[in-house]
Amino acid sequence: MAGGQSEKPIVFEYLFKQRLDHATGDFVTSTITNSELQEAIATLRGDLGLTLSVSNPANFLKDWLRMDTRNEQWPDLLRQGRYTARQAFGKGAVFDFVPYAPGQAEPFPDNFTLPADANIHVVEAVSLSSAARALGRADESWLIQVSVHQRVLQTHFAIYSDLDVIDLFHLQNTLKGPTEVDAVFLLILRATAGLKKALVTFEAKMNDPILPDQIRNQVAYMAKRCASEPALSDVELIVPVAAASRAKQYGKGVIGVFEMEPIPVSEGAAAYDNKTQHHLTLTISKAIGYQFSPPVAGI
Questions:
Q1: What range defines the domain where residue 142 resides?
Q2: Taking Cα atoms as reference points, which of 26, 7, 5 lies closest to residue 16?
Q3: Calpha distance 10→8 (Å, rounded)
Q4: Measured between alpha carbons, how far is 281 from 289 in angstroms, rounded to an integer?
Q5: Does pTM top 0.85 for this prediction?
Q6: Which of 109, 95, 90, 67 is CA-nearest to residue 11?
Q7: What integer pLDDT is reported at residue 3 of this predicted model?
Q8: Are residues 13 and 146 in the same domain?
């Protein structure tokens, strides 16, 4: 299609119409599976001449969410009906059609943006060798590596967080499971009743939007690990943190770090067991910009 227009809105609208009760005008929320999506694309290829591939349906919505024009190109039928889509997981699920949340104004809002007056904190990068700074690359693994090596989260929790943090230890990068967590930290904080342990989940994005449902799944998964494994049984909270590098929005060399309010392990584990991760509330408590000096290539 011309002008950078995607063919995916045609598929979204086709699948949405299939789930409309035309007699009542009601829509029954439904999960779209891999096979249903492939069948729809194949039908539309034959009927309308679409060129979309039927391969890799699992990334159909995920790739859509990465588009800068995802809101502008969302089908009018769904926009007028105040329906959006969210990622679904397990048993071949790809996405769900869901109503807008109360107060939601657009199909795919991006709440993870630095405000115009955001504090920009300078982080030293001289302890990262000049060769490494020169060889940097514009991908998420490099953003994670530099953020961990330069102790960005330690700086953040020491200076800007409302939590009374005593210790913060980096545990692991790229923790794989039903969902992948870019990095995990152990945090010890002072609370009214004494010291508490928390795990910090870290999600990093390079020019792509931060996906709230991805963070919710990370929280639920790590909470379930804490509730199930004896060595983690004293961890009471999960603290989600996301970081993004977006030169067009934040300025060259600036990463936005978004700390969210802690979620009790019991709540996250219950969401994992009941497959209600999308109900977990993510509330951004701090949004701070960090800029490396000297500059680091790729960021």
A1: 120-293
A2: 26
A3: 5
A4: 23
A5: yes
A6: 95
A7: 52
A8: no
